[in-house]
Amino acid sequence: MVISGIGEVRLGDQRHPIGPGDLIAAPAGGPDTAHQIANTGQVELRYLAISTRESPDVIEYPDTGKFRVLDIGRGGDNGFDAIRAPGDAADYWQGE
Prior knowledge:
Blueprint: E1 2-4, E2 7-11, E3 14-18, E4 35-39, E5 46-47, E6 57-61, E7 66-71, E8 80-84
Antiparallel strand pairs: 1-5, 2-3, 2-4, 6-7, 7-8
């Protein structure tokens, strides 16, 4: 929910203006559902974000082709966090 300021929300290839009182829902999924909020105004854009924070999570960055695998761990453990680009892949048997 946008609290103050103005901006735009990107949902897939579409961009929509946003402002105070606007409520935005962004589904999980592939590049067609990528979402991003950007400030297009002259003052700070403030919004309240609510998430399920499901873990583990796989996040795709369609603009760069990168992906992130995140497991926040249980009970405050460090868990696992890795960000990779397509060329970073290693063969399953490499080094075994």
